[in-house]
Amino acid sequence: MKNVETLLEVMPPFLPEPAHVMTVRVDLPPGDPGAPPHRHSGPVFGYVLEGDLRFELEGEPVRVLKEGETFWEPGGDLIHYQAGNERSDGWTRFLAVMVCVPGAPMLTFVDDDELRAKGRLPG
User: Fold this and answer.
1) Nearest to 71, CA basis, from 38, 88, 96
2) For residue 112, what are the domain limits?
3) Residue (of 22, 83, 89) closest to 57 by Cα position
4) Structurally, how many domains does the chain consist of?
5) Whole-structure pTM value
6) CATH number for the domain harbouring residue 36
7) Are 115 and 48 a contacting pair, CB within 8 Å?
8) Cβ–Cβ < 8 Å for 31, 87
9) How far apart are CA 29 and CA 15, in angstroms?
10) Which whole-number Å values give the CA distances from 12 to 8, 19, 76, 83, 92, in the listed order?
11) 52 and 68 Cβ atoms separated by less than 8 Å
12) Which residues pair with 121 in a beta bridge?
C-alpha cells in the first residue's frame, strides 16, 4: 500500500471479552502531570501528536516520548504511573485508543495504600 507506515505492532496479553473501544485525545498544558496513578481495564495504544510526554508504567523506567512516537500498555493490573507534559513551555497532546470492559470506567485510580505498599508514597 502506498503512504502507509506501521508505527506500532504488538500482541497484547489479553483483550476484554466483550470489549468496548474508545479513542480519546488528551491535551496537557505546560507542566501538567496528567492523571494520577491508575489502571485500565484493557490495553491502551497511543500516539503523541505534539510535545513531549513523560510516560511511566509499573516495572519500567520513565521515558519521554516525542511527537510522532507511539506507546502501548497492556492494561489489567499494571499501574500507569505517569502520562504528563514534560514541557514547561508548550502543550503536549496525544491520542489513546483504549480497549475497555463495557460499562467499566476507562481508568481506575490507584489508592494511596497500594502506592505506599509499592514504595511510591512515604510510609
Assistant:
1) 96
2) 20-117
3) 83
4) 1
5) 0.90
6) 2.60.120.10
7) no
8) yes
9) 32
10) 12, 14, 11, 20, 26
11) no
12) none
Q: Cβ atoms within 10 A of the Cβ of 91, count?
A: 14
Q: Which of 65, 100, 58, 96 is nearest to 80 (CA)?
A: 58
For residue 81, give every residue at least 6 positions away whose Cβ sits within 8 Å of its Cβ, in sequence order, or none.
37, 56, 57, 58, 120
Q: Is residue 42 part of a domain?
A: yes
- What value, to the nearest 5°, has the Cα angle with vertex 67 and ends 107 and 44? 25
Grid cell digits, residue 111: 489508592
Pairwise CA distance, residues 77 & 38, whole Å: 9
Residue 8 lies in a domain: no
Residue 2 within a domain: no
What would the pLDDT profile of 20-61 be if each residue is shown by its tens digit? 999 999 999 999 999 999 999 999 999 999 999 999 999 999
- Cell numbers for 52, please give them: 513531549
The answer to whether residue 28 is domain-embedded is yes
